[in-house]
Amino acid sequence: MMLKAGIVLVDPANAAVLRVIALQYNPETLSRTLQVQGVGNDSGPHVDQLRLKGVAIETFKFDAEIDATDALADPGNNAVTVNNGIAPQLAALETMIYPSTAQLAAADANARQGVLEIAPMDAPLALFVWSSNRVVPVRVTDFSITEEMFDSALNPIRAKVSLGLRVLSIDDLPYASSGGSIYLAYQQQKERLAQLAAGGTLANLGITGIP
Predict the structure, then answer these.
(1) Any domain includes 210
(2) Comparing C-alpha atoms, which of 69, 75, 74, 96 is closest to residue 159?
(3) Sign of the alpha-carbon torsion through 60, 62, 67, 70
(4) In the chain, how many domains are there?
(5) The model scores a pTM over 0.85
(6) What's the pLDDT tens digit per position in 197-210?
(7) Quick one: pLDDT at residue 135?
(8) Of these four, 36, 80, 92, 137, which has the most CB atoms within 10 Å of its CB?
């Protein structure tokens, strides 16, 4: 069985799994950007140039394809797809970035009762999963959908979803929280992998010592 990448939505309080969104096809490419969180700048004190004020800000970007062709070839066993196309799969991704209608109703009820300061509505914690070596809490920063084909009822049957994700580190999550623990496990895995990398020598670099 081929492993799939995806997103797992968990309860931020206890990491209980709320929903698993497995991508139909693994993206062909995954773009990662790491922004250094340094203390110093070009004009800062010399002592600050080697200091880090936090972990690097890491972002992921990828395109995921969703296609109903295979399901539509066997309509007897895929009634949901026949009736809705890939709209359910798209909705599962889209609702990650919406408050639920129940939360909206509760906020409206509070406002009608004269509650002036409404706390922001909590969303599930999203975990980006790309193999067992890469399970990391994220926040969706960019989201676009290009619907490419439709059935006779105008249900989308093929689409490309572009997602941008920002890693949530212990700078964003409480250190002792479930999300903080998941992030720390992700960084510890990076450190373990770094130890497995073959070390070089000064001779490899064409030098015999450090001046």
Answers:
(1) no
(2) 69
(3) negative
(4) 1
(5) yes
(6) 988 999 999 999 99
(7) 96
(8) 137
